[in-house]
Amino acid sequence: MIIDLSCYPTDLVDLAWRHDGPAFTGDKLLKMMDGPYYVNGKPRRIDKAFIQPPQGNTIYTHEVMDLEGKAAIRQYMAYTEKMVTEHPDRFLGCFVYNPRYGTQNGAEEIERYAKEFDFKMVQLQANMHAYRPDRALDWLRPAMKKCADLGLMVKVHTGDGPYSIPTEFYPIIREFPEVNFILAHFGVQTGGVYVFEPMQMALDTPSVYVESGWCLQSRIVEFAKVLPKHKILFGSDTPPNEPGMWINLLEVLCHEPPQGLNLDEDTLEDYLGNNVARMIGLEATKPPATVEEAEAYLRQHGVALAA
Amino acid sequence: MIIDTHLHPTNLVDEAWRHTGEPFTGERMLKLMDGPYMINGKPRRIDMGFIQPPPGNTGYRDGNRKGRDGIRDYMAYCAELCQKYPDRFIGNFNYNPRWGPENGAAELEFHVKEYGFKMLKLHANMHGYRPDRALDWLRPAMKKCAELGVVVLIHTGDGPYTIPTMFYPIIREFPMVNFIIGHFGIQTGGNYSFESFWMAMDTPNVYCESGWCFQSRIVEFAQQLPKNKIVFGTDSPPNDPGMWLRELEVLCKDPPHGINLSEDDLEGYLGNNIAKLVGIDPSPPPRDLKDAQARLTDSYAGVDRATGKHKEFA
């Protein structure tokens, strides 16, 4: 079972990042998820992905995103909702919580998306939504209470100053020990490299997990050796990241030191998807034992394989 | 032609980084380079690699010899590998001015003339100097690089001494020397990828090494940089080449992940760009699986070395 924690299909190119090319739609993402990607010599697809709107499209923008309150939230979540409804077997919803549209509004919308569309995760993006997570606790509490009530995971954007430095989230993490927090892209972004913070936070705090994407390759081999096996979760941050490179980052852990740590295939499968599957109540699955088994699985799901 | 600009085979685990496992010897490196790695559907090997000692083994430690003897000792294993595998390994001289700037310059010349070294490495953090101020420590070696046509690879990405723009004074003083910004200004200690990008955009003799660069940024940088400005380097070990080959291969895809890069331009990034900088014959990407298979054991199979093209088209 391979599950990607961070994907951003959209019908509107991210207004902040302005990636090249036409909008990376849900159909394009599905094609990309199908790969196939070769993992330890076996062709694989990404079975499921958590999807959310691009962050740059979740804030007020004159004449583009100019509704208010819950209507604004529903506007920026609309495409994600549509994709989850159309492809419930491949996409899992992740709700982007922007407290600037009203903290109670956000909390109520979290509940609606969880109950009506089976969303399993909430994303915090304190830089894009401009708040200090260690001080704006009143902005975070309503949503976090809802996550605790509904058993939702919280994914935290980390890696950039001023508001997305991993340890800035410790106050809210400690206040809600019953909520599982995932430190997205291992504390690394274009604005900074905070890899040691997520590593120590995940090591010290039972409710903290780390997402693999963006992690520096030379460091993840060291961190994986020390972290409990259930603490690393695969996420690619696609687009413009591309899943193949980040699957390879984890696959290499099966090699010998110093590049790898002789990781077994079962644990790799945990990293790639089974860990998060267990966290959201999905049944974990074994990695394919042979190339034939892997190919048969893909054919069964309509993935074309080269002759 | 695939050439990795940044490899650290060793018979002694890096005393600074202390990577896990046994020393990653030259023979293990060759096995890693052989792959094969699938690139645009074709199996490839890394044809050649620039090798240098792990930086953590290039500083003085109690018991070392000093001066030129000490330099020769820390370079010995790389020199041995370059002689043993001259078709696969190219020497990169690690220049530590603390063993004496003139000693370093003389040893650079020795390694170039005796063992065919083609590159010099600066690591200002490991060797403890400010590259923008310690110009007197750098000049003897840079003069020698200018004289011998040696390319300079700069460790960048960590404060306090390896922030890319700290090297502008020496880069500007030696416009005839080509400088490669190691790992695109990114290390565990920081991210200076935009600095590296702009330095390569603005300065004719500055190039960027692809490894460590953030995937979401390299697609943007590659779109704007002249095609000769990116060179492939992995910083293995403990990095592994497959992931960093993939990062460049993806540039051949549609936006937003790629820029529809041509296979010829990809081959430029993967090795032909650096080949041209140091006087190695470039080679075109394999046309098909058969071509690719032949290249797994012979880097120039089916290639006219005089023209750098496939033989039948030469």
Order the strands across the largest sheet of chain B as they lie in space.
1-4-5-6-7-8-11-12
- What is the CA-atom radius of gyration of chain B, in angstroms? 19 Å
How many separate helices of chain B? 11
Q: What would you call the quaternary organization?
A: heterodimer
Give the overall average pLDDT of chain A: 96
Largest sheet of chain B: 8 strands, parallel
Largest beta sheet: strand ordering of chain A = 1-4-5-6-7-8-11-12
How many β strands of chain B by DSSP? 14
Unreliable runs of chain B, pLDDT <50, ≥5 residues? none
Write the layout of secondary structure elements.
The complex is a heterodimer of chains A (307) and B (314).
Chain A: E1 3-7, H1 26-34, E2 37-39, E3 42-44, E4 48-51, H2 69-86, E5 91-97, H3 103-117, E6 121-124, H4 137-150, E7 153-156, H5 170-175, E8 181-183, E9 188-189, E10 192-193, H6 196-204, E11 208-211, H7 217-226, E12 232-233, H8 243-251, H9 265-279, H10 291-300
Parallel strand pairs in A: 1-4, 4-5, 5-6, 6-7, 7-8, 8-11, 11-12
Antiparallel strand pairs in A: 2-3, 9-10
Helix pairs in contact in A: 2-3, 3-4
Chain B: E1 3-7, H1 26-34, E2 37-39, E3 42-44, E4 48-51, H2 67-84, E5 89-95, H3 101-115, E6 119-122, H4 124-127, H5 135-148, E7 151-154, H6 168-173, E8 179-181, E9 186-187, E10 190-191, H7 193-202, E11 206-209, H8 215-224, E12 230-231, H9 241-249, H10 263-278, H11 289-295, E13 303-304, E14 309-310
Parallel strand pairs in B: 1-4, 4-5, 5-6, 6-7, 7-8, 8-11, 11-12
Antiparallel strand pairs in B: 2-3, 9-10, 13-14
